[in-house]
DNA sequence: TCGATTCGTTCGGTTTGACGAACACTCACG
DNA sequence: CGTGAGTGTTCGTCAAACCGAACGAATCGA
């Protein structure tokens, strides 16, 4: 039910991704992590099966949590209308369905809020930490929200997710409340 | 900044803890994971530095997310009624308040669901992965939920959190929907 | 008391991950 | 063109992870 796939390829991809994000070469990373560059080369090629210590030192050198290197990735604006939805779980003996909106990875930190809004424009230009993502499920009322220039109007049960590190705003069209999950890495 | 300590000892401890929780022997676990029991013996002893594949297969055999084996450790029923709440964020120039319900630590994995329930008892005895925690914010209707023998009735905007690894159930008193955040480590 | 079973640990042998050197390649400089 | 510094890859060597078998201890029946 869990453990979707052998993480060999995932590690290779994550490793390359994080290294390029840091803007350093294989040789440089090898030096910082105290490893042979040949080892890194093979790892990024998907060949090989690193030991915990090896992978750990890479996490340290890259400044990312260990689990970031072993679990997959996902962002963008995405809306799920009430009732629609992707993967639905249906309880065998029960009258309820649960719709998966966003799967979390271990390295993401998610804070859970309930948000109450009164009508009127309410900018939140603050543009949070880079890499943060917002998830909103409207509980009641109507809210227009999203990144500036790409806002969407939502009603009860509607879900939206969008990057939190760009200017965006919330605007209640009537007294409203919503569940907000703030995700930062 | 992160990466507190070499995870050698952590893995040894986590491995033993999870295995004993599953109530199986080293030999049995070795058989399920397709490893030599000698390997496990040494791993639990703290000797050795397992490869990713080895540790992964152990995670699968134990039915535990990979990261649970490599990261350290840290629940109860808690209810926040609509309008009440702990720390409230108030936007300076805006008409909205956000109430922090649950702060996420890194290393916890949180999946976001919307749940629709029809009236009638609906047991979910399944008792998910050990260490999992459920967070629920009711969007509409009325729901009675919580661990068996300790359920609470909730209305729109109410929040509850409780351990997900014990028998519990959802019971909609009328057609309802809710936001569910499933947290497992 | 003697198998028979299961447990966990210890001991050689084999596989393989990590290392370091050599390699081909590109770019900048003279 | 050299030549030097940078890149990433390939190859042989060595240490260590992993395996399988053998071991002592504990439990349970016959």
From TrEMBL, chains A, B:
Superkingdom, natural source: Bacteria
DNA-binding in keyword set: yes
Does this UniProt record's set of keywords contain DNA-binding? yes
Entry keywords, A to Z: DNA-binding
Can you say what this protein is called?
XRE family transcriptional regulator
Which PANTHER family does the record associate with it?
Answer: HTH-TYPE TRANSCRIPTIONAL REGULATOR (PTHR46797), METHYLPHOSPHONATE SYNTHASE (PTHR46797:SF1)
Record organism: Paractinoplanes aksuensis
Q: HTH cro/C1-type domain location, by residue? A: 15-69
Q: Which InterPro entries match?
A: Cro/C1-type_HTH, Cupin_2, Lambda_DNA-bd_dom_sf, RmlC-like_jellyroll, RmlC_Cupin_sf, TransReg_Diox_bact_type
């Amino acid at each position: 039910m869990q453990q979707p796939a052998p993480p060999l390829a995932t590690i290779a991809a994550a490793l390359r991704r994080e290294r390029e994000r840091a803007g350093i070469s294989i040789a440089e990373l090898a030096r910082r992590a105290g490893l042979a560059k040949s080892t890194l080369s093979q790892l990024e090629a998907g060949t090989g099966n690193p030991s915990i210590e090896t992978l750990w030192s890479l996490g340290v050198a890259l400044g990312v949590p260990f689990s970031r290197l072993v679990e997959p990735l996902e962002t963008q604006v995405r809306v799920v209308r009430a009732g629609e939805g992707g993967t639905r779980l249906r309880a065998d003996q029960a009258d309820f369905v649960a719709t998966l909106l966003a799967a979390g990875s271990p390295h993401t930190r998610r804070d859970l809020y309930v948000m109450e809004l009164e009508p009127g424009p309410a900018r939140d230009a603050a543009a949070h930490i880079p890499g943060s993502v917002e998830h909103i499920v409207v509980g009641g009322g109507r809210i227009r929200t999203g990144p500036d220039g790409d806002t969407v109007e939502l009603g009860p049960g509607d879900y939206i997710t969008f990057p939190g590190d760009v200017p965006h705003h919330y605007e209640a069209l009537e007294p409203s409340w919503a569940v907000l999950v703030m995700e930062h890495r």
